[in-house]
Amino acid sequence: MRAPSTDAALSVPAMPAGPGADRPTAASISLSALTHNFEEVTRRANGRKVLAVVKANAYGHGLVPVARHLLGRGAHMLGVALVEEGRELREAGIEAPILVMGPVFPEQADAVAALRLTPALSNNTVARALDDAARKRSRRIAVHVKIDTGMSRTGVSPEAAPDLIRGMNSLDGIVVEGLMTHFADADLRDKAFAAQQMERFENLIRTLTDQGISIPLRHAANSASILDYPRALFTMVRPGLMLYGYDPVEGNASGAALQPVLSLVTRIFLLKKLPAGTPISYGRTFVTGRESLIATIPIGYADGFSRSLSNCGEALVRGARVPVTGRVCMDMTMLDVTDVPGVREGDEVVLIGSSGSERITAADLAAKTGTIPYEVLCGISSRVPRIFL
């Protein structure tokens, strides 16, 4: 196979117009796939309200555009982890209810009130600060009470919850509109521990009802529960990962026809024909065993393509699966494209997505790096442009 000369003038295809045109590396977001996945949520929710989880930049997909799209499809509420994420949505003109599911500190009460956010609370200290902030503005702040049924992270125990809720109900600036809990392992096929958590949550709801306390929004179901544990649906569901096209249930066993929303692509910057015995990249951890054609691509671990993919990752070029050679660098990665017919500088390289009959998913990258698809998607850095299709 003849390789392009590294000394010859390059004939590189023109950059595409539009967002991301200033950089060949981009994450493409399929809004039609996002719609498909949301419709799968609503089908399984069977009339219940949907809180679309868009924290962590919508799992790396782009907070504001994804939030707008899901609201347009019928999402009732948005879920974020941080007050700052809620601020970004409000500053983008989004008026829908926003639940802040992560910790809220007393000193953030004024911001929560000003931004009309709905915090998830676990104690009276923050509730009192929110009450003060709300009354200063002559308004009431809706809150959800987080119940710790076994996650042991945040939340109040079911035993202490009734007193906490009665205390909140006595505050003029607070209205308790939601009761929530979080599963520790609903993604497992064995739902024994999830059932224990459900029993504690259901017992609390019965206790509150017996005491004349009615809370309209009750929610526990994350993506795994929506897909594989209908007992947990209650009055609202909280899809996250499944919106973005991935099945979190152990063994991908739910049978849901989800569509990955994000593709990560770049282009070949340089091709080099190297003799056998040539070391490649930092540490010389890869040495060519034959005359090889090596492609350099402008993406690295600073973009979210993990260094753990060194010498074990793959990419797709012209429909062919090619290996990562040597260590992934901060800004560049090398691929062995020796066996790809007709490969040229400027060719598209797919790191997540499809090319021809081949496909690489975030789950595939997670399996190679010993992590989960959530981390792969969230790890795609802000310097990678998002292009919405």
Distance between the amino and carboxyl termini: 36 Å
Largest sheet: 8 strands, parallel, barrel
Computed over alpha carbons, the radius of gyration is 25 Å
Number of strands: 20
Coarse shape: elongated
Strand percentage, roughly?
Answer: 15-25%
Helix content: 25-40%
User: What is the architecture of the largest domain at the second tier of CATH?
Assistant: Alpha-Beta Barrel
How many domains, in number, for the residues?
2
pLDDT averaged residue by residue: 94
CATH class of the largest domain: Alpha Beta
Q: What structural category arises from helix and sheet content?
A: alpha/beta
Looking across the biggest beta sheet, what order are the strands in?
A: 2-3-4-5-6-7-8-9
- Tally the helices: 11
CATH superfamily of the largest domain: Alanine racemase
Low-pLDDT stretches: 1-20
> What fold name goes in the CATH topology slot of the largest domain?
TIM Barrel
Structural notes for this entry:
It is a single chain. With 389 residues, the protein is of the alpha/beta class. The protein has 2 domains: 31-246, Alanine racemase (TIM Barrel), CATH 3.20.20; 262-388, Lyase, Ornithine Decarboxylase, Chain A, domain 1. Helices cover 28% and strands 23% of the residues. It contains 11 helices and 20 strands. It has helices spanning 31-45, 55-60, 63-73, 83-91, 109-115, 124-136, 161-169, 192-210, 223-228, 362-369, 373-378, and strands at residues 26-29, 49-53, 77-80, 98-100, 118-121, 141-147, 174-181, 217-221, 236-237, 262-267, 270-274, 279-280, 286-287, 292-297, 314-317, 320-323, 333-336, 348-355, 358-360, 386-388. Strands 2-3-4-5-6-7-8-9 form an 8-stranded parallel barrel, surrounded by 5 helices. Strands 1, 10, 15, 16, 18, 19 and 20 form a 7-stranded mixed beta sheet that branches. It starts with 25 loop residues before the first strand and ends with a strand. The model is unreliable at 1-20 (pLDDT under 50).
